[in-house]
Design a protein that fits this description.
Blueprint: E1 5-7, E2 19-21, H1 22-38, H2 43-54, H3 62-75, E3 79-81, E4 89-91
Antiparallel strand pairs: 1-2, 3-4
Helix pairs in contact: 1-2, 1-3, 2-3
Length: 98
């Protein structure tokens, strides 16, 4: 049986993101959102926390999938980049405080 996939979105208009496994997408998405529920993080911090959290339970490039899903979540307005320097990522609803 063929693996179910999802066409991920890109936050920059005109750019196309990757088509990836729906199972991997959901796993990465769940973990990214759990991490961002607790903290507002820079890109590097977010990817490091994701790697530490799932490295033993995930088959594939954690950073690559993490970046692909992060961009998709930005395009869907689920997570946002703050206007601070350095930029940080936060969940929808928390961005008004920035």
């Amino acid at each position: 049986m063929k693996e179910e996939t999802i066409q991920t979105l890109h936050p920059k208009e005109g750019k196309v993101n990757k088509k990836i496994s729906l199972e991997k997408y959901n796993f990465i998405r769940k973990n990214l959102l759990q991490i961002l529920e607790k903290d507002e993080l820079t890109h590097t911090e977010l990817m490091e926390k994701l790697y530490e959290k799932i490295k033993d339970d995930f088959v594939g490039g954690v950073q690559w999938y993490g970046e692909t899903v992060k961009l998709d979540l930005e395009a869907r307005s689920i997570i946002f980049r703050t206007k601070s320097r350095p930029e940080k990522y936060t969940l929808k609803g928390k961005e008004q405080t920035q």
